[in-house]
Amino acid sequence: MYLSERGAMTELTTRGTLGGQIARQIEHDIRINGWREGHLIGSEAELISQHGVGVAAVREAVRILEARGLARTRRGPGGGLLVTAPDRRLVTDAARRHLEHAGVDRAELFEVWLALEQVAVTKLATSIDIAGAQRLRAVLRKEDERQLAEAWEDLPNIHLEIAQLAGNRALELFIEVLTEMSLNQYGTHTNPRTMVRWLHARHVELVEAIIAGDAPMAALHLRRLTEQLASPDDMSIN
Predict the structure, then answer these.
(1) What is the pTM of this model?
(2) What is the pLDDT of residue 182?
(3) CATH of 7-83, one of 1.10.3470.10, 1.10.10.10, 3.90.180.10, 1.20.1250.20
């Protein structure tokens, strides 16, 4: 059993493999110490010495951390285990698999998307500046250029841009997960080009209301968009 001198490790000694325990301790250290991307956690030899374990346990811990997108190994002189920025795609994929396994249906997913993005839309409509308006319109222009795309899922994510401009990083992450899941999984239509045109028109309405500072109208446009996507049988796309 792995016994660390550090108190944070004590609660971990009764469960999991040795490598798993070390991985959890390193993850704890990254979070508590605020280590940013590129921080050198230590070489393999340093980690072996620091944790008082063998090479197999340290290598298992490294594999776990790399799989979680928390660290990577740099080879050569001065190398070792480095902190990495977590891959947001891992979060999205994990959330999608969990929600599918849990049997979350279309209506539930869109209901949560609407609730969260309404917070971002309301906040942004009351605070947006010229630079923010330009950013939103730039995304709309890119979206407009994609209107002949066969795969409408490739459109830039205007909802993520709204969340980023609203300045709440938690909202940003959750909205990214929800919009990508909602659109990619449930936003299909028999005519992708028609769908792209329809979606772009709804996004223009939403963005212009935000830029005008009209939070209630922006929220209304968002509600209409999500309700129509959530109810494809009742959907009228022209």
Answers:
(1) 0.67
(2) 77
(3) 1.10.10.10
